[in-house]
C-alpha cells in the first residue's frame, strides 16, 4: 500500500485555509468573475457530473464516446437558443478566450485560402474584449480598433466605412463587457456579407442570458444579434457565465461546416497516433463539459428564462439605485445583466462620487465591484473611469444589503477628488518616479520591474499562503494604470502576476 507523505485530510484542510483568503464565489458579494445561479442543487449536480468524468480525456471522443454525446447535445441546445439552423455547427471550448481565438483563426485561414495577401486586418470597436487583442497578437493580424462614444456605443458607419479586402474578420459584441453596449450587429453583418467578410458576434457574456431576457424589461436587446441575422458567421457564448457552469466552458458556433472545420488542427505527419484537435488543446478535462451538459439538461429553456428574469429584476433595481445616488450615473443604455457606473459630471465637484473611491468603499462594506480605468482612444476621445457590476440570479437575495452598501459607500466619498497620477508620483521615491516617467529610461527587465513594484507597494508578499501585495485602496493603482504608457503598465502587471506563482523561500 502506498504511504502518503501527507495525510489527505491535512492536505484538504490546508486547501480550505487557502480558499478562505479568496473572494467569495457564492452569495452575491462579488459582482464580477463569478456567476452564481443561487441554486445549491445546480452546484451539486455540476460537482457530481464532474466527478463521474474526472479520469476522462476529452482529446479523443472515439475512445471516450460520452464526450461526443455531451458536446453534441450542448451544441444542439446552443444552436437553437442562438437562432441557428442546421448549417450551424460548433464546439465546446475551455472558455471565451479560446472561443474568440478560434473564431479569429478560422477567419484568418479562410481569408488566406480566399487569396488574401499580406497581413490581414481584424476590425472591431475599441470596446471589444481583450481576447481579440490576444488573437491578433497570436495569429498575426493587424488590429484596427474603432473609437466608441463615451457611453460605449459604436456607430455602424464607423465600422462599415473601414471594411476592405484586407479585413479577415469584423467583430461586434452582444453586449460589450465594459459598458454593456449592444453593438449594431445587423447593420455591420449585412455590410460584411456584401463585402464577403466574416463577421463574429462576441456574445461571451450575453449569449446564455439575452435569449431569455424578458421582452419588455429594461436592458432588453433592441434588435436581433444572433444567427437570425444574415451575415453573422460565428458566435461565442460562455457556458461558465450565464450558463452557470464551472470554469471553463464556452461554445463557439460557426455558420457552415467548412468554416468550422478550418478551426481544427490535424496531422498524421509524425510517428505517433493521428492527431485531430477541434480546439486549441489536445488532452483536456471533460469535467467542465460534463457540468455544463448536466446544467443545460436540468434547467432547460424554462430554467434559464426564470434565472434571466431574476437578473432583470435585480439589474433594474440596482440601476435605479445608482440613478438615485447624487454624483453617480449609469453609463449609456446597458443591455443585459451588467452595467458601468461613472461620476456624474453634471453636478458640482463637491457632489460628485468618484467611481473608484466608491468601489473601494463598497469593498469595505463587503461587496467587490470591478474598477475600470479611463481610456484615451485613437481619435482623442476619452472614456472616463468606471466601476463595473455584473448581476447574477443570487444578487436578488442580497439586494437590500447591497443597496445599503452602495448608498453608504457613495455618501462616504462624495466630493473626494479623483486620484491623479501626479499625487501618486509625489508619494514615491524619485528613483521610482524616474523609472516610470523617463522616456530615456532603459527597458524594464524582470528584476527592474519587480523593484518598481516594490517601490509602489505592489510586490507580492513573502507569505506562503496567498497575498498579492495589493493595497486596500485600488483607486491609486488605477490612476497609475491610466496615466502610464500601456507597454510599461503591461510589463509591470505581467511581473506582478508572474511573481505570484514563483516558488518562495
Largest sheet: 7 strands, mixed
Low-confidence parts lasting 5 or more residues at pLDDT below 50? none
CATH class membership of the largest domain: Alpha Beta
Q: Per CATH, what is the topology of the largest domain?
A: Aspartate Aminotransferase, domain 2
Counted by DSSP, the helix tally is 16
The CATH superfamily of the largest domain appears as: Type I PLP-dependent aspartate aminotransferase-like (Major domain)
Average pLDDT figure? 93
Distance between the termini: 33 Å
Helix content: 40-55%
Shape: globular
- Give the strand order of the largest sheet, numbering strands 1, 2, ... along the chain: 1-7-6-5-4-2-3
- The number of domains is 3
Number of strands: 15
- What percent strand? 5-15%
- The CATH architecture of the largest domain can be given as 3-Layer(aba) Sandwich
Broad structural category: alpha/beta
Q: Gyration radius, to the nearest Å?
A: 24 Å
Description of the structure:
There is one protein chain. This protein is of the alpha/beta class and 505 residues long. It has 3 domains: 47-295, Type I PLP-dependent aspartate aminotransferase-like (Major domain) (Aspartate Aminotransferase, domain 2, 3-Layer(aba) Sandwich), CATH 3.40.640; 300-413, Aspartate Aminotransferase, domain 1, CATH 3.90.1150.10; 421-500, no CATH class. The chain has helices at 8-20, 40-52, 65-81, 96-113, 131-139, 156-160, 185-195, 257-261, 287-324, 355-364, 399-413, 421-426, 430-437, 446-455, 475-483, 486-500, and strands spanning 88-93, 121-125, 142-146, 167-173, 198-202, 234-238, 250-255, 265-267, 275-277, 328-330, 338-343, 370-372, 375-376, 382-383, 386-390. The strands form 4 sheets. A 7-stranded mixed β-sheet has the order 1-7-6-5-4-2-3, sandwiched between helices. Strands 10-11-15-12 form a 4-stranded antiparallel β-sheet, with helices on one face. The protein starts with 7 loop residues before the first helix and ends in a 5-residue tail after the last helix. The mean pLDDT is 93.
